[in-house]
UniProtKB/TrEMBL annotation:
GO MF annotation, one: ATP binding
Domain ABC transporter span(s) in chain numbering: 7-237
SMART domains per the UniProt record, alphabetical: AAA (SM00382)
Sequence intervals crossing the membrane: none
UniProt-listed InterPro entries: AAA+_ATPase, ABC_SmlMolc_Importer, ABC_transporter-like_ATP-bd, ABC_transporter-like_CS, Mo/tungstate-bd_C_term_dom, P-loop_NTPase, Transp-assoc_OB_typ2
Coiled coil: none
Protein name per UniProt: Spermidine/putrescine transport system ATP-binding protein
Record carries keyword Magnesium: no
Signal peptide as annotated in the record: none
Alphabetically ordered keywords of this record: ATP-binding, Nucleotide-binding, Transport
Family, similarity comment: Belongs to the ABC transporter superfamily.
Length: 354
């Protein structure tokens, strides 16, 4: 397999009129890595992806593919494969013609085109659909055609902008798993935009968390989930409870009196401790309670609780559906894990600016 290049984005900004949508993005994507840009609507993920694709020009900064600067290059010369939320297939062309289009533009010879189109359709599981028109396919199949069209050109980089969001839940999971397997097989450097945290965790070698046109932090899904530096990441990635606690040396005291050790006691500018809902056990009690069940929702594999305690609503998730569900109004004790993790309030750029 040909070695795929890395991608470097340096000090990239994008301004629409007076609106600074990207505020100096620095991002390295190592060769063959699958990096997910995750953040709430409007944080600039799509703008960043479109700038990498060359559909949108940066206001300042640069983009390098290995050591070749590409930000002034027209999109068609970048050799990037793009897959968008809307499939953007040519409606009057068959599946194979749609997939062949990029190769015809590159003046690849006919025999090679036929061979490569067949191989790409095989890879996305559509070998039997070559002669169909897009309208004769389901949404999931149309997105597979778009994927075949993106990979058939043997791209240096694959760019995805919420490609699964028009599909229903079941199809979305299947296509997500297939997409990941395909990316690993091809080893193509990939950037994927989503606002869905579970999609980001399932797909990414790394997740880059964005907020207001800036990168908050990046890391592997496990690191960001288990040890986020910032409150924003913790809340965006796992509905984490953030609790104001009194800090005492290497430990903290929770509002209901319990004392717990800290995983990262030397952290500065902290906003609270993190307790993920699945780590917060609850016990029904009659006296000495910490909180009261505000809402309970049975979800099959788990039951989700909203507990009113310490002046706020905390989330708790208990696994298994075998035990009885605690009723609304039930008094409970909260049992957090023995070791807690401190969260920082500000993200790095704010700290630099301060
Ligand atoms: N062509 C444009 N002209 C003016 N403003 C734009 C343009 N494109 C995007 N914006 C603005 O840039 C900001 C970031 O938009 P962008 O689409 O990149 O966000 P996003 O994180 O991808 O959100 P979503 O998930 O909703 O697409 C928004 O405030 C948006 O209104």
């Amino acid at each position: 397999m040909k070695m795929k290049p890395s991608l470097s984005i340096r000090q990239l900004t994008k301004q629409f009129d007076s609106n600074l949508v990207l505020k100096g993005i620095d991002l390295e994507v190592a060769a063959g890595r699958f990096v997910v840009l995750l953040g709430p609507s409007g944080c600039g993920k799509s703008t960043l992806l479109r700038t990498i694709a060359g559909i949108s020009d940066p206001s300042s900064g640069g983009i390098w593919l290995k050591d070749r600067r590409i930000d002034a290059m027209p999109p068609e010369q970048r050799n990037f494969g793009l897959v968008f939320q809307t499939y953007a297939l040519f409606p009057h062309m068959s599946v194979e013609k749609n997939v062949a289009f990029g190769l015809e533009m590159r003046r690849v010879n006919k025999r090679d085109i036929a061979h490569r189109v067949a191989a790409a359709l095989e890879l996305v599981g559509l070998a039997d659909y070559a002669k169909r028109l897009p309208k004769q396919l389901s949404g999931g199949q149309q997105q597979r055609v778009a994927l075949a069209r993106a990979i058939v050109i043997e791209p240096d980089v694959l760019l995805f902008d919420e490609p699964l969001s028009n599909l229903d839940a079941k199809l979305r999971d299947t296509l997500r798993d297939d997409l990941r397997a395909l990316q690993q097989k091809l080893g193509v450097t990939s950037i994927y935009v989503t606002h869905d945290q579970s999609e980001a965790m399932a797909l990414g070698d790394e997740i880059v968390v964005m907020k207001n046109g800036e990168i908050v932090e990046r890391g592997t899904p496990i690191d960001l989930y288990r040890r986020p530096a910032y409150r924003f990441t913790a809340e965006f990635l796992g509905m984490t409870n953030v609790i104001e606690a009194k800090l005492r040396d290497r430990a903290c005291q929770l509002p209901w009196g319990d004392v717990r050790e800290l995983e990262n006691p030397s952290e500065r500018d902290v906003e609270g401790v993190a307790i993920r809902p699945e780590d917060l056990a609850i016990e029904a009690v009659e006296t000495d309670h910490h909180g009261v069940v505000e809402q309970a929702m049975f979800m099959g594999a788990a039951t989700h609780y909203w507990i009113r305690a310490a002046g706020k609503t905390l989330r708790a998730i208990t696994s298994g559906g075998r035990t009885a569900i605690l009723p609304v109004g039930q008094k409970v004790r909260l049992v957090p894990p023995p070791m807690l993790h401190l969260l920082r309030a500000h993200h790095p750029l704010q700290e630099v600016a301060a």
